[in-house]
Amino acid sequence: MTFIITLISLVIERFFHWSHLRHWRWFNMYQQWLSHSRISRLPSVALFILSVLPLICLVGLINYFLNGWLYGILKIAFGIVVLLYCLGPANLWVQAYRCISQLQKDENPAVAMESVQQAFGFAAVDTAQSFHHAFTRALFMAASERVFSVVFWFVLLGPAGAVLYRSIALMNSTSPLGLESMAQKARQWLDWIPVRLLTFIFALGGHFTRVFAVWKKTVLKRPETNDVMLTECGIAALDMKEDGLTLEDVSAEKDAIVLLDRVFVMALLVLAIAVLIV
After folding, report:
1. Of the candidates 10, 147, 160, which has an alpha carbon nearest to the alpha carbon of residue 78?
2. Taking the model in full, what pTM does it have?
3. Collapsed DSSP state (helix, strand, coil) of residue 107
4. Which of 58, 94, 95, 154 is most buried (CB neighbours < 10 A)?
5. Chain centroid to CA 253
6. Does residue 195 contact residue 144 with C-beta atoms inside 8 Å?
7. CB 44 within 8 A of CB 179
8. In contact, 92 and 146? CB cutoff 8 Å
9. Any idea what DSSP says for residue 250?
10. Could you say which DSSP state residue 166 is in?
11. Which residues, including other chains, have CB under 8 Å from residue 154's CB and lie 6 or more apart?
């Protein structure tokens, strides 16, 4: 059942643009309500738990009570809805191809580059070569946070796991309770295993020797190094160098998307084999 839900969800996310249906404003409103109540006097750890625990418990209970209904069809449908809702928030592939198209067609390169930087949240750079390098790295980080880590925790803990990861990732960006720092640390720990698994699949789907050399050096490092490990392994998988990239040449970004597609297919195969074995 987990494999079926994951497969359907990833196919929908890859080939359809439904991310505009994901609205998490209510989660921010819930935190605002907590910040204006007497509960706000509690320690930060308690506020952090109260921000995510009720939602996790609700989703977990619904998933539990759907067992056996209509031969499991309702549970599958619920799992697909929750997983799709927790991916993103923005669709990785739609946003990436839109940015690439904008870079290729926009008559004002500076405006196009600024738009891409805002979409994927990386800092401004001085040269076109550095921009393409940063954009490629941002694609790998987005793939991990928007898709792979969510799927990992869904497979491990069910719909509640996907909600756990997404809610903490949202607080990492902004929190009316001032929990950004705590959420960042929590997300880094939640990413620790998924990043190492994803980068190992990079080795299988890309330049194995180069990726594995980086992977061995970084696999046991602390969660603070997740992004560095992820991007370095991604660049190594593409066998890409920073020189030779121009504003008109988005081949590195296209190769990164192709690599990610290949990696997600391989991850699904691993999941299918694990399900059969278990």
Report:
1. 160
2. 0.91
3. coil
4. 154
5. 17
6. yes
7. yes
8. yes
9. -
10. H
11. 2, 5, 6, 79, 82, 83, 86, 161, 162
